[in-house]
Amino acid sequence: MKTLSIILTLFFASPLWAQGSDGAQQRKLLRTGQLVLEEIQNSPDHKIPAGLIAKAKAIIVFPTMVKVGFFVGARYGKGFASVRAKESGEWGAPAFLYTAGGSFGFQFGAEAVDLILLVMTQRGLEGLLSEKFTLGGDIALAVGPVGRHAEAAADVFMQGEIYSYSRAKGIFGGISVKGTVITSDVDANQAYYGKPLTAENILLSNQAGEVPESGKQFIKIFNHLAPYKKGK
Questions:
Q1: Residues 208 and 190: beta-carbon distance below 8 Å
Q2: Which residue would you say has higher pLDDT here, 109 or 21?
Q3: SS3 sequence, the chain?
Q4: For residue 99, is pLDDT > 80?
Q5: pTM value?
Q6: CB neighbours of residue 130 within 10 Å
Q7: What's the pLDDT at 73?
Q8: What are the boundaries of each domain within the chain?
Q9: Torsion angle of alpha carbons 49, 55, 61, 66, nearest 10°?
């Protein structure tokens, strides 16, 4: 436990995760998340099936979630979520999140992971909007299908609540995102929108107000990369 506390303390104290006061960190995060999804969707053998992403009620992106461990592991990252509008199916204003978690068992190494989560059910969406949301806890978490031949499997067999897609940038043994806690990043939302908003305030109650230009660009790009299909 002492080792885990030291690891988490180093992460939270690191300047890498220091919050900007003018929304610059949030603009960069949105841009990085867009690039992550674009690169994945442009890779035929690893892309998220269009039929599955078209059914998603929400999308969560954590570009460069860091995981380190030596038997006791820790993970930390900043990301964002967006929810589809019920009528139009278009993605809405982003809400900023952070994730932190610890794990035990055999693991060794360090890794940066790009993580995309597709929330497929109303129950999963309600979990996302709660104050703290644990992956693989009350809501079922499964690794999503990828590639050229995954469309049929996604349509016929996939009945999960949340599907995860990850892209590793390092070496790590014993990788799992289950047990990761996702929480509203009120400070990041304050920096971006000028108000101390939770994910629920932004994604459900539409309290963000005027969306910054970078947010409008994010919505436009995500609607192109992860389009809604009528009659889905």
A1: no
A2: 109
A3: CHHHHHHHHHHHHCHHHCCCCCCHHHHHHHHHHHHHHHHHHCCCCCCCCHHHHCCCCEEEEEEEEEEEEEEEEEEEEEEEEEEECCCCCCECCCEEEEEEEEEEEEEEEEEEEEEEEEECCHHHHHHHCCCEEEECCCECEEECCCCCCCHHHHHHCCCCCEEEEEEECCEEECCCCCCCEEEECHHHHHHHHCCCCCHHHHHCCCCCCCCCHHHHHHHHHHHHHCCCCCCC
A4: yes
A5: 0.79
A6: 16
A7: 53
A8: 2-225
A9: -60
pLDDT for residue 153 is more than 70: no
Neighbours of 158 (CB within 10 A): 18
Please compute the mean of the pLDDT values over residues 50-73 and round it to a whole number: 77
Q: Which residue, among 213, 173, 183, has the nearest Cα to 30 in the 3D structure? A: 213
